[in-house]
Design goal:
The complex is a heterodimer. Chain A is an alpha+beta fold. Chain A contains two helices and ten strands; from the N terminus they run ααββββββββββ. Chain A has two domains: about 45 residues; about 110 residues, Rieske Iron-sulfur Protein (3-layer Sandwich). Chain A is elongated and about 90 Å long. Chain B has a two-stranded antiparallel sheet with strand order 1-2. Chain B has a two-stranded antiparallel sheet with strand order 3-4. The N and C termini of chain B lie far apart (about 90 Å). About 5% of the residues of chain B have low confidence. Classes of the chains: A alpha+beta, B mainly alpha.
Chain lengths: ~170, ~575
């Protein structure tokens, strides 16, 4: 056994008050430094990045080409911010035009687990093939595990063209 | 707490291990001069921590790397602070390692039996330098790219080993590319950190094995490492950390433009601690240059390793180490002189991607004096200096959402500042293909392609070329009716007959100052049926959509009269 091991409990080369001060200082300063590193790290990892300004509205089909009363799947290209990149991606929407020319554009993703659903003409409902969620033509849940109605894109009509914006935040 | 500690102690022995470590005997003469090693270890921990955080938001491929660093700097919350800590931490780490070595050197603490401790320490210094060199490339901006080009060239000059080292660094021909980048990244993040931990472990083991070096003649009873010396170490750590933290907040970490191998105007320079070599190289030509760039550093490193075998006498008091102290002072003077000379004699590079220090105080309207002497021309807005085609380009610029990435007016966006484009990009022949396929022209560019017709791309290019730091903000603030009107003017090819500010054809009357001659109702009637208000007119009628008619009329009516 080496001598430092034997003497470990007899280490009283400083007075007890100094010793208390030293230990308090070491713990305090190291704690502060730990905090000064941990807090920025938590902010860095947990806070969302700043949102970039971008043109979010995409011009899609001519309104007159969309049949009234029947959901139509239209595809369009939009730009999406993906981390440090802006990607151009194809997106689709199920568009329902009412007789009074009001338009609703549904996000093509089932609100249950994100499968792509489709319009079933015979039953006049949106059907999701994954877990048999069923939605009505206005997006409400008719059956299956879907927790909320279909998500909707923001829409506006400009000079007879349907413009699609981001997905509306759901409650 | 106690039962948990007892449980852990019984199962692992961790408490007695820590106590064993802390209650090491150290000489009574140990003290403030020996705190630097602990500070160096602390900085290594900070580098590992902040480096890991950066890796969470970093894409390790050329081009992507730049975009992700830019993302960290402009969008990630706290990103600049974390990168600041890592960047300045690297510089401070090198200073601390050097100070630690100087302390050991002037005290002669490398002497028998501590030769191995010293040599392991020199290895750690070299590793720190390799960390700096490899990390320098990772942001993949111009600074990183050209700095590394020079580094690999110097490496290639090494006798015999040169070509092999170059191959090892993944360099092909004269350029630095994907392979070099991946190897530097792997070195910096995969290979070196664990290697450093192992070598630091060996270094500390050797320090413990031989004990902390005492001042010769110190026969006083030994003291314990904890808590007094640990307190002193903590004071050193705290001071260094405060300096680092303040620097990370106050001093901006540079991120220049995306690496552009075709940029001929760029002056590469190394990180500050290599500037002395950079400067020394300027004094030598031909074969001597190779000797200075490779031979001298090689000899210096070898000498450093062998110091314990060159200076073999027993340890003496600090006061008697005049040779060692004078050597350090002379080396410091030489280093400072060379570094200062390098800073002073190398011209500053102009552009940096996020350089917000451009004098914003300059008046945005510096140009009017150069225009005509006519009274109305003295107060022209910036956009009134643009041709209709450039103005149409401005309309496209806004409509295409270009401002999302190029916000202009000194704001930082994800795209580069368009007022600071390098000279070789300042022409339509470069810009149009770039718009069509950005990443083909600038590998790694994150910019989406601009899907426009050839005339529109031309207009957009001409617009981009008009941007200067002085006019950009004013141009982007141009009213919509102007840009819309100019777009109508362009799509209807009005310039095939008319002229504005000297641009276009003289077949029909020039339109400058048309608002002084005509009013809105006249223009509208004239568009619908030119001969109804001007009986000899050969202009065809134009049936504009109401919105277009509104834009073109407003645009035309504001056109200033020019001399």
């Amino acid at each position: 056994m080496d001598e430092s091991h034997q003497s470990q409990h007899t280490a009283v080369d400083v007075s007890p008050t100094r010793r208390t001060f030293y230990i308090g200082f070491i713990n305090g300063v190291m704690g502060l430094i730990g905090l000064a590193l941990a807090a920025p790290a938590a902010i860095y990892l947990l806070f969302p990045p700043k949102q970039r300004k971008e043109a979010q509205w995409v011009e899609t089909a001519d309104l007159s080409t969309i049949p009234a009363g029947t959901p139509t799947e239209i595809s369009f290209e939009r730009k999406r911010v993906d981390g440090w990149k802006i990607t151009t991606e194809k997106a689709t929407a199920w568009v329902v035009k009412k007789p009074n020319n009001d338009v609703v554009a549904f996000s093509p993703i089932c609100t249950h687990l994100g499968c792509a659903y489709h319009w079933d003409e015979s039953s006049h409902t949106f059907l999701c093939p994954c877990h048999t969620s069923v939605f009505s033509i206005d997006g409400t849940v008719l059956g299956g595990p879907a927790p909320r109605p279909l998500d909707r894109y923001m829409t506006k009509i400009d000079a007879g063209k349907l413009e699609i914006g981001p997905v509306e935040p759901h409650a | 707490m106690r039962p948990i500690i007892d449980w852990l102690e019984h199962r692992t022995g961790i408490e007695s291990a820590i106590k064993n470590f802390l209650y090491e005997d150290i000489p009574a003469s140990a003290g403030w001069h020996q705190i630097i090693g602990s500070v160096a270890v602390f900085f290594f921990v900070i580098q590992v921590f902040t480096g890991g955080l950066l890796a969470f938001n970093y894409a390790p491929t050329p081009g992507e790397a730049y975009n992700s660093v830019k993302y960290i700097m402009t969008e990630v919350t706290g990103g600049p602070l974390i990168r600041g800590l890592h960047h300045w931490g690297a510089s401070m780490m090198l200073i601390i390692v050097a100070l630690h070595m100087i302390q050991v050197f002037i005290y002669g603490a490398y002497k028998k039996p501590r030769e191995a401790t010293w040599m392991v320490g020199v290895t750690l210094l070299l590793i720190t330098l390799v960390f700096g060199l490899s990390g320098y490339l990772l942001p993949w901006d111009n600074r990183a790219y050209f700095g590394t080009v020079v580094t690999t060239h110097i490496t290639s000059q090494a006798p015999i080993a040169g070509p092999y080292l170059l191959r090892l660094l993944g360099s092909q021909g004269d350029s630095v590319g994907n392979v070099t980048f991946s190897r530097f990244y792997a070195l910096h993040t995969v290979l070196l950190p664990p290697l450093t931990i192992i070598i630091i472990g060996i270094h500390i083991f050797l320090v413990r094995k031989h004990g902390v070096a005492a001042v010769p003649g110190d026969t006083a009873p030994k003291r314990k490492f904890f808590p007094e010396q640990v307190f002193k170490d903590t004071v050193g750590v705290a001071i260094a950390f405060i300096i680092l933290f303040v620097m990370a907040i106050v001093a901006k970490v540079p991120l220049e433009r995306l690496a552009d191998p075709t940029d001929t105007a760029y002056i590469p320079r190394p990180e500050w601690y290599f500037l002395f070599l950079f400067q020394t190289l300027k004094f030598f030509k031909g074969p001597m240059e190779t000797f200075v760039s490779v031979g001298l550093p090689g000899i210096a490193v070898l000498t450093l390793f062998l110091i314990p075998f060159i200076d073999r006498g027993p340890m003496v008091r600090l006061g008697k180490r005049t040779f060692a102290i004078s050597f350090v002072i002379l080396a410091a003077i030489a280093w400072t002189g060379l570094t200062t000379a390098a800073v002073v004699t190398t011209p500053k590079n102009q552009e940096s991607a996020d350089d917000t220090e451009t004098p914003a105080t300059e008046t945005p309207e510096a140009a009017p004096q150069t225009t005509a002497a006519g009274a109305p021309a003295t107060t022209l807005a910036a956009w009134q200096h643009l041709t209709p085609e450039e103005l149409a380009g401005l309309g496209l610029f806004k409509k295409q959402g270009c401002t999302g990435c190029h916000p202009g007016a000194g704001q930082t966006g994800i795209g580069p500042d368009l007022t600071k484009m390098p000279a070789n990009h300042r022409n339509v022949a470069w810009l149009v293909p770039h718009f069509k396929n950005p990443s083909k022209i600038v590998p790694g560019s994150a910019m989406p392609s601009v899907d426009l017709s050839a005339p529109d791309l031309n207009a957009l290019s001409l617009l981009v070329l008009t941007f200067t730091p002085q006019n950009e903000a004013a141009l982007l603030a141009a009213p919509d009716f102007v840009t819309q009107g100019a777009m109508v003017y362009q799509t209807n090819h009005c310039n095939s007959c008319h002229q504005i500010d000297g641009t276009g054809s003289t077949l029909a009357p020039a339109l400058d100052g048309v608002g002084l001659r005509r009013d809105r109702p006249w223009l509208e009637k004239h568009f619908a049926d030119p001969t109804s208000v001007s009986k000899d007119s050969i202009m065809p009628p134009y049936k504009f959509k109401p919105q277009d008619l509104d834009s073109i009329c407003k645009y035309l009516l504001q056109l200033p009269k020019r001399a």
